[in-house]
Design a protein that fits this description.
10 strands; globular; 3-stranded antiparallel sheet; Rossmann fold; 33% helix; 5-stranded parallel sheet; alpha/beta
Length: 309
């Protein structure tokens, strides 16, 4: 865990450039910005573009322009993950040398067939845990497409990760049973999100990760990776989700509209309401200043964001 007594506060907003900011992603951006500003820290923006097939050309510049229009300005030039391959390769090499990684040529279909044969039907919208099919294999051909997976315990010795979220409180996950061994590099050669985010958070000295609640189940995977790489674990705060008309998380995949920027104050107010910030002001700059003070109160010990400081 980050040593809060010695480490200056560093936060980050890390959007994927698959489209412009919408109401849900603005909530996460604003919360991260407020959390850093309320403690006099540094706020960074990182473009998470390792999943290149999903990236929309120009979306990164659109996102940066939206943030600027709302007055959410980073304290350093943005970083693009697509430039960071060498750092991810170095981290992977360390894990390989430790015996933490193995080759896997399982397809999604093969994994689904495994669980179907066990009589299990994964919950809707949830990925089936990896059953460890290739964990003990020595015949995966390195010359053919294959993923590289990180060992996450075994059924005989499960890996359980516990942490305290600053909003949600104490959390725990049986990583072995609920997720299985995680992918670090995909079969198509692309870097997996989990490895990239852990390496970059450590390199940028991020002390506080503030992001949407839909990413909370990624936290134990990242904590496990941090431990295996000998990296510090940031504090985590997962914000409330903005739901669409169908009751599911508002996202680009279900047609979420871009944030309306003709009235920045209205956009900020709407995002603040999701965070429970009752702030009123005549203009966007005044609203941001008042919201920083309101966030500081909410994040103080005993406040709704004060579980872990």
């Amino acid at each position: 865990m980050v040593n809060s007594a010695s480490a200056p506060v560093v936060g980050r907003f890390a959007p994927s450039p698959t489209g412009p900011l919408h109401a849900g992603s603005l909530v996460a951006a604003l919360a991260s910005w407020l959390d850093v500003r309320s403690r006099g820290g540094r706020w960074l923006v990182r473009i998470e573009d390792v999943d290149t097939p999903r990236c929309v050309p120009g979306a990164d510049r659109v996102i940066l322009g939206q943030l600027a229009a709302l007055g959410l300005l980073p304290d350093a030039p943005p970083r693009w993950q697509s430039t960071r391959g060498a750092a991810y390769a170095d981290a992977l090499a360390r894990l390989v040398a430790q015996g933490d990684v193995y080759r896997c040529d399982c397809s999604r279909r093969r994994i689904a067939e495994h669980w179907a044969a066990q009589g299990r039907d994964p919950a809707r919208f949830a990925a089936a845990p990896y059953p460890g099919t290739c964990r003990a294999r020595s015949d995966v051909d390195p010359a053919r497409p294959h993923a590289l997976r990180l060992r996450c315990g075994t059924p005989q010795a499960p890996l359980c990760i516990a942490w305290t979220d600053r909003r949600l409180g104490p959390q725990a996950q049986d990583l072995t049973a609920e997720v299985g061994d995680i992918v670090l590099r995909r079969a198509d050669g692309l870097w997996a999100y989990q490895l990239a985010v852990v390496v970059d958070d450590a390199d940028q000295r991020v002390t506080d990760v503030v992001r949407g609640e839909d990413l909370a189940d990624n936290t134990p995977r990242q904590i496990h990776l941090q431990r295996r790489l000998g990296l510090p674990t940031p504090r985590y705060l997962h914000t409330p989700l903005v739901l669409g008309p169908d009751g599911h998380k508002l996202s680009k995949q279900n047609g979420a509209r871009a944030v309306e920027l003709r009235d920045p104050l209205a956009a900020l107010r709407a995002a603040g309401q999701v965070l429970g910030l009752a702030v009123d002001a005549p203009d966007a700059a005044s609203w941001r200043a008042a919201a920083v003070r309101a966030w500081a109160d909410a994040a103080a010990p005993g406040g709704r964001f004060g579980h872990c400081r």
